[in-house]
Write a structure and sequence with these properties.
Blueprint (H helix, E strand, L loop, with lengths): L6 E5 L4 E9 L6 E7 L7 E4 H4 L2 E4 L2 E4 L1 E5 L1
Antiparallel strand pairs: 1-2, 1-7, 2-3, 3-4, 5-6
Length: 71
């Protein structure tokens, strides 16, 4: 699994998100990514690390679901 560090990420559909960091689910101990969209109301969201770091296929190309943009 690739490293997820705080910073700006671009979702494969085009929107940017700010990752705050990682959290641990209190019941399952699953690692979650804490982030918010850089548009709209900017509510906090969490997504399982495995899902955040996975790849998707877009127009025949395998790309990351969220790609690192920078700090």
């Amino acid at each position: 699994m690739r490293e997820i560090k705080p910073g700006r990420y671009r979702h494969y559909k085009g929107n940017d998100y700010q990752v705050i960091g990682l959290a641990t689910h209190s019941e399952t101990e699953e690692t979650l990514v804490v982030y918010y969209p850089l548009y709209g109301n900017r509510d906090l969201w969490v997504r399982p690390l495995a899902m955040f770091a996975e790849t998707v296929e877009k127009e025949g190309e395998v790309i990351p679901r969220f790609a690192w943009v920078g700090e």
